[in-house]
Every structure is written in C-alpha cells, then in structure tokens.
Write a structure and sequence with these properties.
The protein is mainly alpha-helical. The protein has helices at about 5-10, 15-25, 25-35, 40-50, 55-60, and strands at about 1-5, 60.
Length: about 70
C-alpha cells in the first residue's frame, strides 16, 4: 500500500526519529512504512493520521490491486 508519510513528515519538519518516538515505534518502522515495505496495523494508521491531524484516506493510497 502506498502512502504519503514521508512527504507529510518532511513538510512538517519532523525527523524519522522524532516521529517514531511520538508513535512509540522504532525509526526502522518509520523507514519501512515510508518505503512501502511495511503496512501498519489499523491502530498505527489511526495514530499516524491523528499525529498529522489528517484522515487515514489522506495519508494512505488504497489501490484495489492491494487486496488481490
């Protein structure tokens, strides 16, 4: 699943390390999310959206191909 996490994080001037601490995950998790190697749990997706003051749909790009 594609996402805009890196783009939004950089626009807000937040480092991967600081974002990871805010979310209670490792910096490696943030890196994996940003590169699309890891899909977050629904709980983590909501935490990310809340942290950015956005909706999940504004951050994560759903593609029908993702569910096939």
């Amino acid at each position: 699943m594609k996402n805009k996490i890196e783009e939004i994080r950089k626009q807000k001037g937040i480092t991967q390390e600081d974002f990871a601490k805010t979310l209670g995950v490792s910096r490696q998790t943030i890196s994996s999310l940003e590169t699309g190697r890891y899909n977050p749990s629904i709980f983590l997706a909501f935490k990310i959206a809340k942290c950015f003051d956005m909706t999940i749909e504004e951050i994560f790009i759903f593609d029908e191909e993702d569910i096939k």
